[in-house]
Design goal:
22 helices; single chain; two-stranded antiparallel ribbon
């Protein structure tokens, strides 16, 4: 068992002061930080407790280690008292300044300040009186700890102390270590050299504290402690990204040979040669093939969120184009399945079939349309949806079959068209002029036909955003194509009203370009001016 002794000696006066301490299950004392000193002082001060039985002198300890109490005595000073040389008088805030247990105190003692706390502590390890050397730790802000230790224990466990206490310096009785950054952990790490089961001592410690112990153990060359810390870090959960980054960075900085860091790093890296593309493809396929609504919806949201946070996930293992090809492979598969379901649903007599025969086809249509919308969202976030616009604009058969299905079964296909127009209007997609023109020719009228249902039956449908996207897409075309599409839209809008997209803003822009301020002269007048200049 170990104990802490703090003694102040001066001419004509002797004081022994209590030092707030923390006792470990193995029976050694470790020195708390100044903040812990302050908290412990508050708990020990009888002035703050109403019951005398709760004073530190009479309170029983619940630890298995018997703690030797240091008696508190205070002699009356002589006529010419002298100041103690170790601790200044303005630092006297401990039990020696407190009244006796039988004295009633009606005033609250002032809270001690950190600068008034003791700066020097003596700690003894092992059996009292058996130490054969001193180790003096000098920390920051004048904190000073003197350790009474055993040479053989330090040399057996620490390569640092083994070098310092070599045969050439075997007579060394005191070793000073200056500028200790973490003196509290330094003392605890030295105490761990007296433990048989270091790993058990680390149980219930925080990850951040074990990382501090690991750092000091590396400085001391305390390999068994380092191994115990690594075993602890391999087994304990890491809470949050910040803590995980601290663990990984600390492990990667270790430079000691013979210490196995691989088990810890396996949590964040894999030795298996699976390409990330294969893993992502497997995840995407599982989501696409799921028919459970709640799990499917949540996983779609999670995967999309993670891809948005890091749009270059596969870049460390290869080109991003490889991942985009994987997504487009899934797009083609879903599109082929959707077209097949449309063909079945458009067959004569399909509506006359029993509901149990029609329901699987209609559910598959909804599922594949939803899959394509999700894949399009992923590609748009990765700025790789131009090829999807090309693929969708060439689906003339699907657009023809679209009119033959009930609107309740086909309206989600129009959501894909609307998302493409929104992406082009926002500049997320940059398809060619021919692709934009073909997309409008193929899918604008089916979208208009489903517009009323989309407004009232689709929660995610934003009418203003879609109308803005359609109008901006139209206005990217040559002026004559704008005129053709907008005049066709005008006829539909005059018949359907609110059940048709409101493209008035695009119509106004086209009108100004055509009638109010044309930017170039008509082609015929330009040709005449060219011919006159040549003649």
């Amino acid at each position: 068992m170990a104990e802490i002794r703090l003694t102040k000696v001066a001419q004509g006066q002797t004081k022994i002061r209590n030092v707030p301490i923390a006792v470990t299950p193995e029976g050694f004392w470790c020195c708390p930080s100044p903040v812990v000193f302050q908290k412990t002082l508050k708990a020990q001060n009888p002035l703050n407790k109403p019951k005398p039985s709760s004073s530190p002198l009479s309170a029983p300890t619940k630890t298995t280690v018997q703690k030797k109490q240091v008696p508190v005595t205070e002699k009356k000073p002589t006529s010419t008292p002298s100041r103690p040389p170790v601790v200044p008088d303005d630092h006297r805030t401990f039990a020696s300044d407190a009244p006796s247990l039988g004295t009633l105190v009606h005033e609250r003692a002032p809270r001690p300040k950190i600068e008034n706390l003791p700066r020097k502590v003596a700690i003894e390890f092992g059996e009292p009186g058996t130490s054969d050397m001193k180790v003096v730790l000098m920390g920051k802000q004048g904190f000073y700890v003197k350790l009474s230790v055993h040479k053989n224990v330090l040399m057996e466990n620490s390569s640092f102390f083994a070098d310092k206490l070599s045969e050439e310096q075997s007579r060394l009785s005191c070793l000073e270590i200056e500028d200790c950054e973490d003196i509290e952990i330094y003392v605890e790490t030295v105490g761990l050299m007296y433990c048989k089961e270091t790993k058990q001592r680390l149980i219930k410690q925080s990850v951040s504290r074990v990382l501090r112990i690991l750092k000091v153990a590396e400085l001391l060359g305390f390999k068994s402690c380092m191994q115990s810390c690594l075993e602890y870090l391999e087994a304990v959960p890491w809470v949050g990204e910040e803590e995980e980054e601290k663990v990984v960075s600390s492990i990667l900085r270790l430079q000691v040979e013979g210490i196995g860091v691989t088990p810890v790093l396996k949590r964040v890296s894999s030795e298996v040669g699976n390409h990330p593309k294969e893993t992502l493809f497997h995840i995407v396929e599982q989501v696409l093939n799921s028919s459970e609504e709640r799990g499917r919806r949540e996983m779609k949201s999670i995967v999309l969120k993670l891809l948005r946070e890091n749009s270059s996930i596969p870049s460390y293992a290869g080109s991003a184009d490889i991942f985009n090809e994987t997504i487009y492979s899934s797009c083609r598969s879903c599109l082929d399945s959707l077209l097949s379901m449309f063909r079945q649903a458009a067959e004569p007599g399909f509506t006359d079939k029993p509901m149990e025969n029609r329901e699987p086809v209609l559910k598959q249509i909804t599922l594949e349309a939803d899959n394509l919308s999700w894949l399009l969202e992923i590609l748009a976030d990765r700025q790789a949806a131009d090829a999807f616009a090309v693929m969708w604009s060439t689906q003339q058969e699907l657009a023809t079959l679209h009119t033959k299905l009930p609107i309740v079964s086909r309206h989600q296909v129009s959501c894909i068209t609307a998302r493409l127009f929104v992406g082009i209007g926002r500049g997320e997609l940059l398809p060619s002029k021919d692709t934009r023109q073909l997309l409008l020719q193929t899918w604008l009228q089916p979208l208009i036909n489903d517009y009323s249902w989309l407004q009232h039956g689709c929660r995610s449908f934003d009418r203003k955003v879609v109308e803005e996207g359609i109008g901006r897409t139209i206005l990217t075309l040559p002026l004559e194509d704008q005129q053709s599409i907008l005049l066709s839209w005008l006829g539909s809008f005059l018949k359907a009203g609110d059940n048709c997209p409101n493209l008035q803003r695009a119509f106004e822009v086209w009108w100004r370009r055509t009638f109010i301020r044309p930017y170039v002269e008509p082609r015929g007048s330009l040709m005449q001016s060219d011919s006159s200049m040549t003649s």
